[in-house]
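User: Design a sequence. Structure:
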């Protein structure tokens, strides 16, 4: 009897594994070529327009690919709004503080629905949009062909987001475990963390850094952050010191003045900042505390072109994280914020 149930369990496991693999392998580059020709251009046009108006939207999209795909796979579960039926979806989780670009995705979905009703999933739109944002923010250095054919998920729970996504207070062991659970290596974790070259964070996301010792954060930078964070209950601060306002830098870290840039840019500057102890989050600094991770921080500081390529590959890998197999019936949502039966 024991044997039989063990065999049955093994068969179920194999069937599930095959189902997951099949799901992932069904993704195809050019998936909508026949059913919705030109859809990728439509997405790109809207993303480019949005970034022209506000470049910060680019960072928001790059973050969304991570926050969607790490929880239940890339199924647009992060886009679902609270409803009476489901009052606490993923986007209400503390770890999802500051997520943005939802309005842009609504706008894109609506344009795509006008063109091809009921055909293109929000999950695919999110991947296309994040891919395009990465590309536009890096002048095309970050790029990949995005396979598509995902379905939108029907479930979204804050508790799952809180469980599956890394917190900025994590130590290096917790970070490694967190990425390992999704089959990402230490190297890939370091590569993906380079996304913190762009965008912003709330002071509450790095409060403990304001009193961290000088081995962990450059005192002048700590002073800059403390000044900014004193300006309100929970202000936002730019992730990359190079995007700071020159006056603030002149007053606090003048040695960084020549490194300021005119435009926010997705490049390997995160690794240079990290080695100089000028990064916002504890999780960023933690990468220097473990031999392999630290080695990769040096590697990508030294080779920006390699980072562009490896970051593109890692985003592509993220985009292939499959929908959870159990109970994961999918659909093409009409609106990205609500399941169709709502
Ligand atoms: C290694 C673990 C990671 C941790 C602990 C972490 C944590 C955070 C935190 C706390 C914020 C600021 C949220 C806020 O206060 O508003 C943030 C912002 C951001 N994260 Fe991460 N993150 C991680 C990895 C990643 C990855 C893998 C990506 C993408 C590939 C990413 C992309 C971003 C971007 C682009 C922003 C700026 C968003 C914006 O400006 O709207 N992060 N992250």
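Assistant: Done.
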């Amino acid at each position: 009897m024991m044997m039989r149930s063990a065999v049955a369990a093994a068969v179920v496991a194999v069937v599930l594994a095959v189902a997951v693999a099949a799901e992932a392998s069904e993704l195809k580059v050019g998936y909508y070529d026949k059913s919705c020709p030109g859809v990728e251009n439509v997405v790109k046009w809207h993303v480019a327009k949005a970034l022209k108006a506000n470049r910060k939207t680019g960072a928001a999209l790059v973050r969304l690919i991570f926050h969607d795909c790490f929880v239940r796979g890339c199924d647009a579960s992060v886009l679902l709004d609270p409803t009476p039926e489901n009052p606490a979806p993923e986007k209400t989780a503390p770890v999802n503080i500051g997520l943005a670009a939802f309005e842009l995705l609504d706008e894109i979905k609506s344009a795509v629905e006008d063109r091809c009703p009921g055909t293109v999933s929000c999950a695919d739109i999110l991947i296309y949009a994040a891919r395009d944002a990465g590309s536009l923010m890096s002048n095309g250095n970050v790029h990949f062909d995005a396979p598509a054919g995902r379905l939108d998920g029907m479930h979204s729970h804050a508790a799952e987001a809180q469980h599956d996504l890394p917190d900025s207070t994590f130590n290096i062991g917790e970070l490694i475990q967190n990425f390992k659970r999704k089959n990402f290596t230490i190297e890939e974790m370091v590569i993906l963390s380079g996304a913190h070259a762009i965008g912003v964070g709330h002071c509450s996301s790095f409060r403990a850094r304001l009193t961290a010792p000088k081995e962990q954060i450059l005192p002048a930078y700590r002073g800059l952050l403390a000044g900014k964070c004193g300006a309100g209950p929970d202000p936002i601060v730019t992730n990359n010191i190079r995007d700071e306002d020159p006056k603030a830098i002149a007053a606090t870290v003048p040695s960084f003045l020549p490194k300021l840039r005119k435009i926010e840019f997705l490049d390997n500057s995160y690794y240079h900042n990290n080695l100089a102890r000028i990064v916002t989050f504890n999780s960023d600094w933690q990468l220097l505390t473990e031999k392999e991770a630290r080695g990769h921080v040096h590697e990508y500081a030294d080779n920006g072109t390699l980072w562009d390529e490896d970051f593109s590959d890692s985003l592509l890998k993220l985009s292939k994280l499959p929908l959870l197999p159990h109970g994961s019936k999918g659909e093409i949502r009409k609106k990205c914020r609500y399941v169709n039966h709502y």
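The pocket of protoporphyrin IX containing FE is lined by residues 56, 59-60, 62-63, 66, 97-98, 100, 166-168, 175, 189, 192-193, 195-196, 198-202, 205, 239, 281, 283 (CB under 6 Å). Residues 55 and 224 are 23 Å apart (CA to CA).
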